[in-house]
């Protein structure tokens, strides 16, 4: 018996069992997910034109080296079912991506096209696709993130007796600052053990030059000691995609500088 047949028998058995009816609303969606995963991706033969595709293109790029990057492309049909086949080829700046099948929980799989360390050409990353029928299309393009120097980020002294502040300059295209605090406390049952507890994560819009302060009173929590202030200076933007791609298609690029301050 196949996995699909076994799952169908479970569904039918549950539906015929009155005492178990209240479980149906929880297990049916899960079993439905498993059944859909058993059927595999949309075959390449079903994808005959650019208008058959929704493309989700994600790029992480270092802000100190534009050739240090990771790119992934996920393809979907009009029913939001994943498209995946090694007979469909994707390229970034004329370099071929690798088709990967990634195993997930509950027997599900993801189908992705991935590539790393692609140098921009004319300061851009350009994506092309070749379908199994030989047709070629431009999927989209996005300009590389401008590089910046993390030494331009300067935090104040790690001292909880005063406000904490950080300032920065020339962080080109950085537009968000994410800040989180980590506290430490002693385990009540074993004082020799120290437990790290995360604080709230705050994100604010910023420009390439600026400053940010945390008031002294927010550096404390009852019975806990501040350990780390973690900051991410994030650059994020979108590119343009082929106008005939299905609704929901996008190309996004992201990069960040990490800056941590450790408190004694």
Characteristic key phrases:
disordered N terminus, mainly beta, 10-stranded mixed sheet, 264 residues, 5-stranded antiparallel sheet
Characterize the structure shown.
The protein has 2 helices and 18 strands. The strands form 3 sheets. Strands 1, 2, 3, 6, 7, 12, 13, 14, 16 and 18 form a 10-stranded mixed beta sheet that branches. It has a 5-stranded antiparallel beta sheet with strand order 5-4-8-9-17, with no helix packed on it. A 3-stranded antiparallel beta sheet has the order 10-11-15, with no helix packed on it. It is mainly beta.
Secondary structure layout:
Elements: H1 3-15, H2 21-38, E1 54-61, E2 69-76, E3 82-83, E4 89-92, E5 95-96, E6 98-103, E7 109-116, E8 124-130, E9 136-143, E10 153-155, E11 164-168, E12 174-186, E13 194-198, E14 202-205, E15 210-214, E16 225-238, E17 240-241, E18 250-262
Parallel strand pairs: 1-18
Antiparallel strand pairs: 1-2, 2-3, 2-7, 4-5, 4-8, 6-7, 8-9, 9-17, 10-11, 11-15, 12-13, 12-14, 12-16, 16-18
Helix pairs in contact: 1-2
SSE order, one letter for each helix or strand:
HHEEEEEEEEEEEEEEEEEE
How many distinct helices? 2
Structural class: mainly beta
DSSP strand content:
35-45%
Number of extended strands: 18
| Residue windows where pLDDT falls under 50 for at least 5 positions | 1-12, 19-28, 30-37
- For the termini, the CA-CA separation is 61 Å
Brief characterization of the structure:
The chain has 264 residues and is mainly β. It has helices at residues 3-15, 21-38, and strands at 54-61, 69-76, 82-83, 89-92, 95-96, 98-103, 109-116, 124-130, 136-143, 153-155, 164-168, 174-186, 194-198, 202-205, 210-214, 225-238, 240-241, 250-262.
């Amino acid at each position: 018996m196949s996995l699909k047949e076994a799952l169908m028998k479970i569904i039918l058995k549950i539906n015929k069992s009155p005492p178990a009816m209240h479980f149906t609303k929880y297990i049916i969606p899960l079993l439905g997910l498993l059944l859909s995963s058993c059927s595999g991706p949309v075959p390449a033969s079903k994808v005959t034109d650019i208008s058959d595709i929704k493309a989700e293109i994600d790029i992480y790029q270092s802000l100190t080296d534009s050739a240090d990057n990771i790119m992934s492309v996920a393809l979907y049909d009009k029913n939001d079912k994943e498209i995946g086949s090694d007979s469909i080829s994707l390229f970034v700046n004329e370099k071929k991506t690798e088709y990967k099948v990634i195993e997930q929980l509950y027997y599900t799989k993801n189908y992705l096209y991935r590539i790393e360390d692609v140098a921009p050409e004319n300061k851009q990353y350009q994506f092309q696709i070749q379908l199994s029928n030989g047709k070629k299309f431009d999927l989209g393009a996005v300009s590389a993130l401008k590089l910046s120097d993390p030494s331009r980020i300067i935090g104040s002294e790690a001292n909880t007796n005063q406000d904490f502040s950080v300032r920065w300059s020339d962080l080109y295209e950085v537009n968000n600052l994410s800040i989180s605090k980590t506290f430490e406390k002693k385990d009540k049952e074993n004082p020799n053990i120290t437990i790290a507890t995360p604080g709230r994560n705050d994100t604010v819009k910023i420009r390439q030059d600026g400053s940010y302060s945390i008031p002294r009173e927010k550096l404390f929590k009852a019975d806990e000691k501040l350990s780390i202030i973690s900051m991410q200076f994030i650059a994020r933007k979108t590119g343009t995609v082929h106008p005939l791609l299905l609704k929901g298609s996008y190309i996004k690029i992201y990069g960040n500088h990490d800056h941590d301050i450790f408190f004694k």
